[in-house]
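quick q for whoever's on today - can somebody do inverse folding on this one?? i tried earlier but teh output was garbage lol. tokens:
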């Protein structure tokens, strides 16, 4: 019988797991079976993985079953131990847009019970994202800003506008693509123009705005979302422009960025 060796606890994601103390090994066994559920792993394979004897694995599995963990044995040459798939949860992979959506909601919520914990949860979500996805989420978050007067708690939110319009703007910001807009001014006059989206701006009067470089006017312009009649994402990638270049002159207003960290 192979002797058990004590060593540091390692992630079950490793290719092989150095022998650990029994409590940690029981936990690691459950996580290992959860990771492959509903497939099974033989006692011999588990023994090699944890560098213990087959008999030790069998005792560990029995202990787990007696404690209520839903592990069962699959008979046959390719059988082994498996865990009830109901106990196996898929990984929670948030997209950059989903992470920013959570951040925007928290930014508008103001002071609230458990608010500190909500922001802590968001930081954990972002920290768990793969490196490139996390950086993309941070870049997108910098392009969503809220404005309000000092001491103001916020105004009642107005309709965002047509759903296809907001979706197109979100996609263009995320993919850094040029947008083609049909826009009605305050008098209802409609113009078509290509714009380079810079910032989603919300809070002023309860409306949401798109701050963008307008190629028709050759300057930065602010477009109220509910006045955009149509928006199409083009295949053209936006040239790089400093985010500061989209800063808007809003007198007596404080601009709050959307924070992920």
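ok took a stab at it. sequence:
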């Amino acid at each position: 019988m192979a002797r058990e060796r004590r060593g540091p606890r390692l992630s079950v994601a490793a290719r092989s797991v150095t022998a650990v103390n029994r409590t940690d090994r029981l936990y690691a066994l459950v996580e290992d079976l959860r990771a492959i559920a509903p497939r099974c792993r033989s006692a011999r394979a588990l023994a090699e993985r944890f560098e213990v004897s087959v008999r030790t694995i069998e005792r560990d599995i029995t202990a787990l079953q007696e404690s209520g963990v839903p592990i069962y044995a699959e008979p046959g040459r390719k059988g082994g131990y498996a865990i009830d798939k109901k106990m196996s949860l898929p990984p929670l992979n948030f997209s950059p847009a989903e992470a920013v959506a959570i951040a925007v909601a928290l930014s508008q919520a103001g002071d609230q019970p458990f608010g500190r914990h909500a922001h802590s949860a968001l930081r954990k979500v972002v920290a768990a994202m793969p490196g490139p996805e996390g950086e993309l989420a941070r870049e997108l978050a910098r392009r969503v800003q809220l404005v309000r007067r000092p001491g103001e708690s916020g105004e009642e939110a107005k309709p965002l506008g047509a759903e296809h319009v907001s979706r197109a703007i979100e996609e263009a910001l995320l993919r850094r693509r040029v947008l083609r807009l049909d826009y009605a001014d305050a008098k209802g006059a409609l113009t078509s123009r290509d714009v380079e989206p810079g910032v989603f701006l919300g809070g002023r009067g309860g409306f949401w705005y798109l701050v963008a470089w307008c190629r028709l006017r050759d300057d930065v312009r602010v477009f109220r979302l509910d006045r955009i009649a149509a928006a199409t994402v083009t295949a053209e990638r936006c040239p790089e422009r400093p985010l500061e270049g989209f800063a808007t002159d809003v007198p007596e207003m404080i601009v709050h960025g959307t924070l992920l960290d």
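fwiw The beta strands are 71-74, 80-83, 144-148, 177-184, 190-202, 208-214, 219-224, 228-237, 254-257. also The radius of gyration is 27 Å. so keep that in mind when u check it
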